[in-house]
Design brief:
Strand content: 25-35%
CATH superfamily: P-loop containing nucleotide triphosphate hydrolases
Order of helices and strands: EEEHEEHEHHHEHEHEE
CATH class: Alpha Beta
Bound molecules: adenosine-5'-triphosphate, magnesium ion
Radius of gyration: 17 Å
Number of helices: 7
Number of domains: 1
Distance between the termini: 25 Å
CATH architecture: 3-Layer(aba) Sandwich
């Protein structure tokens, strides 16, 4: 079984020369296909940076990053977006829904780039699965935090990605909403044989994962 995500000696620095801050220091880690891992560590340790690198939204200063065996360091922007489209679904902490689009439109939008048909139907099916059949045509401002996050998760899953990256997906939710959100993500991951990487501060979530990766000061401990 080949790794879904493979980081080899990956460093990330912001700024240049004397002002450079090394945020990740030659880290090595991999996520196998169908593996569920959590990334934990103090604020500022580099967790979001790992998610940004794995999704090609940030560029490594050094090292190699492979997504399903494909090297992504050095790819051009359009090639990176292709890798994302084919492989990766991302859930951000602060939902990032588009305010003037309805729930169905927010979910189906990301499909357009994939040139699939019947986008709205797929989006509706997924939202229905997530208990939002009565909220299809609501705008984000008309949804609760938990509902917005379910829309954001549906959007991440609509392309049927084999890798899901979730950066504190329950960070803005109360514990009941947080639990049902994690059930959705874990169930989906299992059912669709997907890898899942969850950044979390919540021990009960971390403990539900196959493995916990701890990061401190830009290094894996
Ligand atoms: N664009 C940037 N320019 C300069 N420094 C940055 C930039 N983005 C992040 N950093 C720094 O990189 C370090 C790691 O940030 P990162 O967002 O990965 O931390 P984190 O572990 O996700 O923290 P948190 O738990 O608070 O979300 C921090 O010290 C942060 O200040
Ligand atoms: Mg973060």
């Amino acid at each position: 079984m080949s790794a879904a995500i493979q980081f080899n000696n990956v460093s990330l620095s912001y700024g240049i020369k004397d002002d450079a801050v090394e945020v990740l220091k030659a880290i090595n880690f991999s996520v196998e296909s169908e593996e569920v891992i959590s990334i934990v560590g103090p604020s500022g340790s580099g967790k979001t940076s790992i998610i940004m690198l794995a999704s090609g939204l940030e560029t490594a200063t050094k090292g190699s990053i492979k997504i399903n065996s494909q090297e992504i360091v050095g790819l051009k922007e359009n090639e990176l977006s292709e890798v994302r489209r084919k492989n990766i679904g991302i859930v951000f902490q602060s939902f990032y829904l588009i305010p003037n689009l309805t729930a169905v439109e927010n979910v189906s939008l990301s499909l357009e780039a994939n040139q699939q048909f019947n986008l709205e139907k797929d989006a509706e099916n997924l939202l229905d699965e997530f208990g939002l059949s009565h909220r299809f045509h609501h705008l984000p401002s008309e949804l609760s935090g938990g509902e917005q996050q379910r829309v954001a998760i549906a959007r991440a899953l609509i392309n049927k990605p084999k890798i899901i990256l979730a950066d504190e997906p329950t960070g803005n939710l109360d514990s009941a909403n947080s639990d049902s959100m994690m059930d959705l993500l874990f169930d989906y991951t299992k059912k669709s044989q997907t890898s899942l990487v969850i950044v979390t501060h919540d021990n009960s979530i971390a403990n539900r994962c196959d493995r916990i990766v701890e990061i401190r000061d830009g290094e894996i401990v």
